[in-house]
Structure prediction request, 474 residues.
Amino acid sequence: MREYLKFYIDGQWVDPVEFKTVETINPATEQVSGKIALGSTADVDKAVKAARKAFATWSRTTREQRLEVMQRILVQYQARSAEIAEAITEEMGAPASLAGSFHIGLGLGHLNTAMEVLKNFQFEEQRGATRIVKEPIGVCGMIAPWNWPINQITVKVFPALAAGCTMVLKPSQESHFSAQIFAEVMDAAQVPAGVFNMIQGKGSVVGAAMSRHPDIDMISFTGSNPAGVEISKDAAATVKRVCLELGGKSANIVLDDAAFAENVRKGVTGMMVNSGQTCSATSRMLVPKARMSEAIAAAREAAAAVTVGDPKGNVAMGPVVSKAQFNSIQEYIHKGVDEGATLVAGGVGRPEGLSKGFFVKPTVFANVSNSMVIAREEIFGPVLVIIGYGNVDEAVQIANDSEFGLAGNVAGADLDKARAVARQIRAGWISINDGFDFHAAFGGYKKSGNGREWGEFGFHEYLEVKSLLGYVPG
Ligand code: NAP
Ligand code: MG
Prediction:
């Protein structure tokens, strides 16, 4: 049992203004795993005040001073990595192997990348007689989801820190354990008081108070569309910048070539990583209609190989995060069957041999039409839909026929052809044969959001642009 009943404000662990708590549930056992405090508007006010005070000095630090602090964070993050990974497994059910590698690695990657970018970032440039100066935007409010908890925190905190901003973080209630250890890392690294603050609590209370706060200059939000819309409305009256990273229903276009079966298998295995709870997951696989039966055979084989069970053990997939998420995914699987899609693997109910825990069967539907609900809505679970296309133009049209535009993948041996297809997808993050890069810009078109995180692009979210005209006398 973990008890995290204090907030991190102004470099101190402090009691909440009002004492309210909530129990947390371990999704693998359905047992109570801990207790956390829930914040109020008054806690947000305290944290914002501390961040505002710290901004006066942190915003004026040099590149070298910020790098020194980030170097200290790196040491502490590495020292606590195993504990953070354990916390992630316990709070949201990621298998130990995944938590210890990818989850931890993403945080480390964002830290190293932010340091690398900061070393050479151009905060000033000359345009004719004008000096363009990029200044930290101010006090940032960060609202994060639970699905890749440390990734979502670090992808915001490190560029903001590097840009000279101060911040108040509200992690998800579903993933507070890892957030707590992250705040301990920041404390141990002696990040100056007030630069980083963390309050735990409900989105509708703490999150909303942040969005509305007159002294928060920008909100960086990652999460669902409905919450993103609420936050935008709440933020409108104070005209603050709102950067949104929302959901997706991304396409993986598998081209008709020699590596076809292998690419289908890879697409299935990839979909099941993190129990399918990845905003950029390619949850729609597009295959040539003529090869649908071949795709079905390959997908069935790949889904059968995905082991599900106790995330502390050696499994490919743990549970999904919560009962609500489990129920919602079950409804979608029912829906797919009702809509007449071919169930290739998985289906409703828990995997065989598991009688408790929020475990879902790795599920694949084929012969899916892009108009079906299971092809249109983000399921956010281990459910893949396979859709047939006539030719490549139709594949692109299907990929783009979505209200989302977050990510995508093009799988094929002919690189020129894959590149040409990738260029036509209306989304922000398109991999060619599963390409991955911390320096790429992550973010969505359409209802997938309006921000760009990762690498150098992530810095711009936290910077204002000032023009000093007549800087060079004419
Ligand atoms: P969520 O329900 O939208 O919650 C995300 C965060 O927002 C949580 O901290 C939540 O607080 C808070 N929140 C909820 N309503 C709010 C409001 N009205 N005002 C302020 N804050 C509010 O999403 P989730 O279930 O945690 O995460 C899953 C979703 O995130 C999926 O749709 C997924 O696609 C998306 N996602 C997108 C990206 C991306 O980069 N594009 C990455 C990961 C996930 P609570 O603690 O109360 O829940
Ligand atoms: Mg939980």
Notes: Residues 251-443 form a domain with the Aldehyde Dehydrogenase; Chain A, domain 2 fold (CATH 3.40.309.10). The radius of gyration is 23 Å. The chain is about 40% helix and 20% strand.
